[in-house]
Specification:
The two termini are 43 Å apart. Strand 23 and strand 24 form a beta hairpin. The chain contains 6 helices and 34 strands. The protein is globular, with a radius of gyration of 22 Å. The chain has 3 domains: 181 residues, Cupredoxins -  blue copper proteins (Immunoglobulin-like), CATH 2.60.40; 198 residues, Immunoglobulin-like; 144 residues, Cupredoxins -  blue copper proteins (Immunoglobulin-like, Sandwich), CATH 2.60.40. By secondary structure, it is mostly beta strands.
């Protein structure tokens, strides 16, 4: 993973709303642009338009006079990626996976041209960022898709500092390697660490054997599996056989298998590298390291530990938490954690165990000589004190106000056998987002409480675009567990944008409707989303 070179300019006070700004947000093809309102047919009916006056008003309030503008280009293309001794043909932003690191400071403007050289349409979502709605990157909801051979300029103010990432939001393209890290620095941060490691985790199938593309796997899931194909798990560091690659279907039943999700992946990557050829992070003994963890995977929960060290968790999904020290943590698809460690003397395994899948990703933190840890190493910390959602407490400065919120129950429903995943028993259609669903209506300034109620035997990492939530309570669903316990209130729960809801669990989360537009709320399991597990938080005019 490399950092992209960001050109910059001063964003002067002459910056105004109007034609100049609108033209930069157009889809570009052969010099001609297609405006957003002319391309989307889903708005109207009393809804706030993704690039309407309400969105412009909030965007104008966020701009800072004389702000620096950061420029970058992402080229989505087909090519070869070296995963560390195993080369695959895939889609990526650049020469390999993950895509280049994008970085700026809160308050600056990021302007990214996305050039689509893929054989199908695409779009880019800026995961975790509360930006203007027409820059959010959801095809047919906030923008038209970027056609093959076309380009689009995304431009927005970098909001709160933290650890984020970007990825395609078109079909299951994220599963091919169309993702990369995005870091927003805090100009006021004291920088109480010496070194920083950015760690992107991913599960991988694309190009490993015939029929291993994400689209193939989605097809196998939709028809109920692939027979004998894709059945045996692959151990850490093993190279799959092209004759009998490992399986997309996780078996049902106990909790470890439920955590395994729907797809058994042949590879698990840390910064695009296999455990047999891990990335090495170098530092000096005694230094304090900040490790930014990003789970960009399609359908894997990772249990992360650094051998010989404890982890002090300082941030979750880009927001600070009261520091808590643990041995290990679980990170679901779409989640991010920042941890700090005081580094010892030696070579230490940074392990991301793929829950329920008999495999792992691996990096090495090296402060001295010595042997590199083997690909299958599993440090004792993996079985020690684990971080829980209730352990995360938001500090006073980032807690939401607590007026009486508008209440909405959100039921997570679905069927593994028929492979249909839904919210409130309704199936989202990415080609026609408002067809067949009942959006969650909100008005600007409203305080909203969503209670996420999981009625399925699967885990669902639920992600809300354009907002952060605050966790308010955790309990169990009495319709699922006969002895379901009352909700445990969390008055100072963490601020997040992605929260994992376990089978039979219910989690109450609050957010403030302060970012007008039409916002997707969905399961971040790539295959659950593709099967329809999404709805829309819809601002009303």
């Amino acid at each position: 993973m490399e950092a992209v070179t960001l050109a910059s300019e001063v964003h002067g006070a002459s910056w105004q709303l109007g034609a100049a700004l609108v033209s930069r947000r157009r889809l570009l093809a052969g010099g001609a642009g297609l405006g957003l309102l002319g391309a989307l047919g889903g708005c109207g009916n009393g809804r706030v338009d993704p690039d309407g006056s309400a969105v412009e008003q909030v965007a104008a309030q966020r701009r800072v006079a004389n702000a620096r503008v950061r420029h970058a280009t992402l080229i989505a293309r087909v090519g070869l990626a070296d995963l560390g001794g195993w080369t695959v043909r895939t889609w990526s932003y650049g020469e390999g996976v993950p895509g280049p690191l994008l970085r700026g400071t809160a308050g600056e403007v990021l302007r990214v041209r996305v050039d689509n050289r893929l054989p199908e349409p695409t779009a880019v979502h800026w995961h975790g960022l509360a930006i203007r709605n027409d820059m959010d990157g959801v095809p047919n909801l906030t923008q038209p898709s970027i056609a093959p051979g076309a380009a689009m300029d995304y431009e927005y103010v970098l909001p709160t500092p933290g650890t984020f990432f970007y990825h395609s939001h078109h079909g299951v393209q994220r599963e091919r390697g169309l993702y990369g890290p995005l870091i927003i620095d805090d100009p006021r941060e004291p920088g109480d660490y010496d070194v920083e490691f950015v760690v992107v985790l991913d599960d991988w199938t694309d190009g490993t054997s015939p029929g291993s593309s994400p689209e193939d796997i989605l097809h196998y899931l939709e028809i109920g599996g692939a027979g004998a194909k894709y059945r045996a798990p692959v151990l850490a560091g093993a190279i799959p056989s092209a004759v009998a690659p490992p399986a997309p279907m996780g078996a049902p039943a106990p909790i470890t298998t439920q955590l395994a999700g729907d797809v058994q992946y042949p590879f698990h990557l840390l910064n695009g590298r296999l455990p047999t050829a891990p990335q090495t992070f170098t530092a000096r003994a005694g230094q304090r390291a900040r490790i930014r963890l990003i789970n960009a995977s399609g359908a894997t929960v990772y249990r992360v530990a650094l051998g010989g060290h404890r982890l002090t968790v300082t941030d979750s999904d880009g927001y600070p938490v009261q520091p808590v020290t643990v041995d290990t943590l679980r990170i679901a698809s779409g989640e991010r954690y920042d941890v700090q460690v005081m580094l010892g003397d030696g070579a230490f395994p940074l392990v991301a165990l793929a829950e329920g899948k008999g495999a792992q990703a691996l990096g090495v933190v090296r402060t001295a000589g010595g042997a590199t840890p083997p690909p299958s190493v599993q440090p004792a910390e993996l079985d020690r004190q684990m971080l829980g959602l209730a352990d995360l407490q938001a500090p006073p400065q980032v807690r939401l106000d607590t007026p009486a919120p508008t209440q909405h129950d959100t039921y997570l429903t679905g069927d593994m056998n028929a492979y249909g995943w839904r919210i409130n028993a309704e199936t989202y259609n990415a080609a026609d987002p408002f067809a067949g669903i009942t959006p969650l209506p909100v008005r600007r300034g409203e305080h909203v409480r969503m209670t996420l109620i999981n009625q399925t035997p699967a885990f669902h990492p639920m992600h809300l675009h354009g907002h952060t939530i605050q966790v308010r309570a955790i309990g169990t669903n009495r319709a699922y567990y006969r002895d379901g316990a009352a909700d445990t209130p969390l008055p100072a729960g963490a601020r997040k944008d992605t929260v994992q809801v376990a089978p039979g669990q219910r989690i109450a989360v609050d957010f403030v409707a302060d970012n007008p537009g039409q916002w997707l709320h969905h399961c971040h399991n790539a295959y659950h989303l593709a099967a329809g597990m999404a709805t829309i938080v819809s601002y009303q005019a």
